[in-house]
Write a structure and sequence with these properties.
The complex is a heterodimer of chains A (275) and B (250). Chain A is built from twelve helices and no strands. Chain A is mostly helical and 275 residues long. Chain B is of the alpha/beta class and 250 residues long. Chain B has one domain: Rossmann fold (3-Layer(aba) Sandwich), CATH 3.40.50. The chains are: A mainly alpha (275), B alpha/beta (250).
């Protein structure tokens, strides 16, 4: 089957559009999270998403709105991680660990109450971008606009706190507000990304494009652009490749991302050796 | 009467229940060049951080340019160079130019866009600091001395009225260190920038600073270098020989 023929399928078109929007969001936020050593926040919030999805399914929420229904709980948890770090003087990774385990524990208990894991819950765990419907696409587009506008508006503040929080504070930047903006945008993105790669692999979509970009980029701006390119190309190759080879799309996207990382890493070392 | 640039009254700072600073009070006027010295672990850096609100005080008052720290908003008037960046990542992907540009964000409204004028200011500062040729380099690839110059450029690019520097010469070789001190002296003399310099380099500071604070958990001495050298109290504290060395080494 040729590319043009594959592209003629409506579900492939929707997957490509929604997948690219989510890839850009993950890759942009990923740069800030990786550099701030908050990479695993995506993993933690994904586990909370698991709990939220289990709660939505047990409450009989229409599957179309499960994504939206998970948003408040995940946003609340993202703020929980931040507050634990700030107020309880708990290291970021420990705070993520606490919220993450509560999320997954809640999900398991709820799934057990509902009579065990069912097909719906598994589709959220491992993602199914080829099943993206029109409503999902609209949700992805709206959240994409909200998150990207926020990143553009707070770009210099985000850059400043990523470089050094104390210096940012001495420039009059409200670091707590900017941290909140960052984790809330991450929460929104994680909920969206569960359709693409599934809850289990969300953190890969946040981390891998960013670390690949860090190998090759020569400025902060170019890191963000390179991260977007790696993520979008990975999602595109992943969707086509998994369809042609009849493999799980989420896993395939992550593997393509990992190959890009290996290539970028090798290229960086070759370049260093030449210098 | 000119408003004090920094006014600290009865400042107490505790960390995990232990006293780090006790009853510190001093003033810094416009155009002063103040050296803060003291042994390792004496609380010098904490004092600076408390003055900037980066460390919470147990009690006491801090005022910057006449406004209490809590209500102070004119951060563009202050340039700060920390001893070391909190979580500095050697792979941080920003260029020298991008880092120096960060020094212009204070006082701008969101989304804090840089104007052509700002870009010119960055250009001039790079030139002034002698780092124009490394403008496109990634900060993590530079030597300690070059990084320090970049961070100093970041702190002076906005032409602050008060420049606070915490152990800025630690990573510098003796030659670069002397150039650095001369540069600060020029900023102080030519532009009237008030300088507060934290250092353990007690002997060198005498050449440059107009005033000298000796801190060891509390403020032990506050006066000119000359007064320090002739203070009986300091002779008793350091011993005659050590005081002589400090006063005659520069």
């Amino acid at each position: 089957m040729g590319i043009v023929e594959i592209l003629s399928f409506g579900f492939i078109q929707r997957a490509l559009i929604a997948g690219s929007l989510i890839a850009v969001l993950c890759s942009v936020l990923g740069v800030f999270l990786v550099l701030r050593r908050l990479s695993l926040i995506g993993d933690g919030l994904a586990h909370v998403t698991f709990g939220s999805v289990a709660l939505s399914l047990i409450m009989g929420v229409n599957p179309v709105y499960v994504t939206v229904s998970a948003i408040p709980m995940v946003m609340f948890s993202s703020m929980g991680i931040l507050k634990l770090t700030e107020k309880a003087r708990i290291y970021g990774d420990a705070a993520i660990g606490i919220v993450s385990s509560i999320g997954i524990a809640g999900g398991i208990v709820l799934a057990s109450v509902a009579g065990g894991f069912n097909v719906d819950l598994f589709s959220y765990l491992f993602g199914n971008i080829l099943a993206v419907g029109s409503t999902d696409m609209i949700i992805a587009a709206v959240l994409f606009i909200v998150v990207m506008l926020s990143v553009a508006f707070f770009y210099r503040d985000l850059f400043a706190i990523t470089f050094d929080e104390d210096l940012a504070r001495c420039s009059g930047i409200r670091t707590r507000t900017i941290n909140s903006v960052l984790v809330l945008m991450t929460a929104l993105t994680v909920v969206l990304a569960m359709k693409v790669v599934g809850i289990m692999l969300i953190s890969a979509l946040l981390i891998l494009p960013a670390v690949s970009a860090l190998q090759v980029a020569r400025s902060f701006k170019s890191t963000i652009i390179a991260s977007c390119c790696f993520a979008t190309i990975s999602v595109t190759i992943g969707i086509f490749g998994s369809f042609i080879l009849n493999l799980p799309t989420g896993g395939f996207i992550v593997i393509v991302n990992f190959i890009f990382f290996i290539l970028a890493f090798t290229w960086k070392h070759i370049r260093k050796a030449r210098v | 009467m000119a408003v004090d640039v920094l006014n600290i009254e009865e400042l107490w700072v505790k960390y995990n229940g232990a006293e780090v600073l006790r009853r510190i009070s001093f003033r810094v006027g416009p155009g002063d060049y103040v050296g803060i010295v003291g042994p390792n672990g004496s609380g010098k850096s904490t004092l600076i951080k408390a003055a900037l609100g980066l460390v919470g005080a147990e009690s006491g008052k801090v005022a910057l340019f006449g406004a209490s720290l809590e209500s102070f908003t004119e951060w563009r008037r202050i340039g700060y160079l920390p001893q070391r960046l909190k979580f500095f990542n050697p792979n941080f992907p920003a260029t020298v130019e991008e880092i120096v540009g960060l020094g212009l964000l204070a006082g701008k409204r969101l989304p804090r866009k840089l104007t052509d004028e700002d870009r010119q200011a960055v250009e001039k500062t790079l030139e002034f600091m002698g780092i124009t040729e490394i403008r496109k380099r990634i900060i993590g690839e530079l030597s300690g001395g070059q990084q320090q110059r970049v961070l100093l450029a970041r702190s002076v690019v906005g032409k602050p009225e008060l420049l606070i520097l915490d152990e800025p010469t630690t990573a510098l070789d003796p030659e670069t260190r002397d150039k650095f001190y001369t540069l600060l002296k020029n900023l102080n003399k030519e532009l009237g920038t008030t300088v507060i310099l934290v250092t353990h380099d007690t002997a060198s500071i005498g050449t440059y600073a107009s005033r000298f604070l000796y801190v060891d958990k509390e403020l032990i001495f506050n006066g000119t270098f000359d007064e320090f050298c002739h203070s009986e109290e300091m002779t008793n504290l350091f011993g005659e020989y050590a005081q002589h060395l400090i006063c005659h080494m520069h």
